[in-house]
């Protein structure tokens, strides 16, 4: 039975073991010539040398929830580079792309910024808003090719970002609720449905899903139904032009969402992403289909929340017989072509490619840093990563179908909302997706 939220709430990425180090070309912050010079400010840099200038670098991000942690991380950089201050600014995720585009073309924009990956990175490259990093940050070339795919230009093949995190999709669950109800992690679809039924019978929301924010819909779809369309096998076929999104298996994967809608909050399209997070964090829902990027939020919001994760088993009729963990390169650090302090900005972005920074990302922000040598000390992070390595698959629409307009994720986000509202059906959603991406996607290229 659906539960009312109003009543309830008051890429296959391999980590290399060699360490990355800053470039030997990094400027010495204690020497003159670091950007625009103002004589005699008396600031002391490394080894007691006076700073030619006390420079402030603007760093922009879409991760408002991580602002405190980032400020602490950048304080480590400031200690190592006393002549440079980092002004970290975070903006609302859904507004960030437009804010960044405007900022990079003006005089008040960032010196270094978090930039997107894959298709959403290309406009910044084509607009010459960010610079190639192959020579500025040579350490980035030691990253695995699979992760660099999200940071490269499709035109010149150069790297335009330092990857900062990869993400995985899985089902979070409340261990206390499972234990009290005598439930175990499901290994078959039938067991998964039985778990949902048992939770619903107790008056608890089984699946905490918020359908109001369209960007979450393709995440929910891949978490629940990637095996049903074939995961990596379908990826290979659709990219080669051997099938398309009207394939019966892809249509059936969309039907999976309707099959489990009854276990989501009532009127799911009216439930925001934030509400779905809080429903789970306050232990009023038993499971949450989402990304590894949620982990720090849940742990910070409710330190007593005992979390577990599992891969959703394949639904009946799936062309593969095992569960999968979809993943993608989540973002990069880009160097603004309009930075007023390019040398200092290069020093910072070189530091962002070091194991020192990557380990703090893993420890403090609970992100899967792809920097070689980083380890995951949080046991749940390691479990998620192990599940991914066991059965990896790409988050298909984000990795491959954001290189044109409309993007695959935008189409599915909107059409799945309509699906939940009863305004369309799975076959029509699949056709809309195929029609949309066909405007720019050419198989086999």
TrEMBL record:
<protein>
    <submittedName>
        <fullName>Carbohydrate ABC transporter substrate-binding protein (CUT1 family)</fullName>
    </submittedName>
</protein>
<keyword id="KW-0732">Signal</keyword>
<dbReference type="InterPro" id="IPR006059">
    <property type="entry name" value="SBP"/>
</dbReference>
<feature type="compositionally biased region" description="Acidic residues">
    <location>
        <begin position="35"/>
        <end position="50"/>
    </location>
</feature>
<feature type="region of interest" description="Disordered">
    <location>
        <begin position="22"/>
        <end position="50"/>
    </location>
</feature>
<dbReference type="Pfam" id="PF01547">
    <property type="entry name" value="SBP_bac_1"/>
</dbReference>
<dbReference type="InterPro" id="IPR050490">
    <property type="entry name" value="Bact_solute-bd_prot1"/>
</dbReference>
<feature type="signal peptide">
    <location>
        <begin position="1"/>
        <end position="26"/>
    </location>
</feature>
């Amino acid at each position: 039975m659906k539960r009312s939220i109003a009543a309830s709430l008051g890429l296959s990425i391999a980590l290399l073991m060699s360490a990355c180090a800053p470039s030997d070309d990094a400027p010495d912050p204690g020497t003159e010539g670091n950007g625009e010079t103002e004589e005699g400010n008396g600031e002391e840099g490394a080894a007691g040398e006076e700073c030619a200038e006390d420079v402030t670098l603007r760093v922009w991000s879409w991760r408002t929830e991580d602002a405190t942690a980032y400020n602490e991380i950048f304080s480590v950089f400031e200690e190592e580079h006393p002549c440079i201050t980092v002004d970290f600014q975070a903006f609302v995720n859904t507004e960030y792309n437009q804010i960044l585009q405007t900022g990079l073309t003006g005089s008040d924009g960032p010196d270094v910024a978090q930039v997107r990956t894959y298709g959403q990175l290309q406009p910044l490259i084509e607009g010459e808003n960010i610079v190639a990093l192959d020579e500025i940050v040579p350490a980035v070339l030691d990253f695995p090719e699979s992760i660099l795919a999200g940071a490269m230009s499709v035109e010149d093949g150069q790297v335009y970002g330092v990857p900062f995190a990869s993400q995985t999709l899985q089902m979070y669950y409340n261990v206390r609720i499972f234990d009290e109800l005598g439930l175990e992690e499901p290994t078959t679809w039938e067991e998964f449905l039985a778990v949902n039924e048992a939770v619903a019978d107790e008056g608890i929301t089984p699946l905490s899903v918020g359908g109001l924010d369209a960007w979450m819909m393709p995440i929910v779809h891949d978490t629940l139904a990637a095996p049903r369309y074939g995961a990596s096998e379908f990826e290979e076929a659709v990219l080669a032009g051997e099938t398309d999104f009207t394939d019966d298996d892809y249509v059936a994967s969309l039907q999976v969402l309707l099959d489990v809608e009854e276990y989501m909050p009532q009127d799911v399209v009216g439930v925001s992403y934030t509400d779905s997070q809080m429903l789970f964090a306050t232990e009023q829902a038993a499971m949450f289909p989402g990304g590894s990027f949620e982990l720090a939020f849940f742990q910070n919001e409710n330190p007593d929340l005992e979390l577990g994760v599992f891969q959703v088993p394949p639904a009946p009729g799936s062309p593969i017989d095992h569960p999968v963990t979809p993943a993608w390169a989540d973002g990069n650090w880009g160097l603004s072509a309009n930075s007023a302090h390019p040398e200092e900005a290069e020093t910072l972005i070189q530091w962002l490619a070091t194991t020192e920074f990557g380990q703090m990302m893993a420890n403090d922000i609970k992100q899967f840093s792809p920097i070689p040598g980083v380890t995951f000390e949080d046991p749940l992070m390691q479990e998620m990563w192990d599940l991914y390595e066991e059965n990896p698959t790409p988050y298909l629409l984000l990795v491959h179908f954001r290189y044109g307009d409309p993007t695959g994720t935008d189409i599915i986000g909107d059409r799945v909302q309509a699906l939940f509202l009863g305004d369309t059906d799975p076959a029509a959603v699949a056709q809309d997706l195929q029609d949309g991406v066909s405007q720019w996607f050419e198989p086999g290229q």
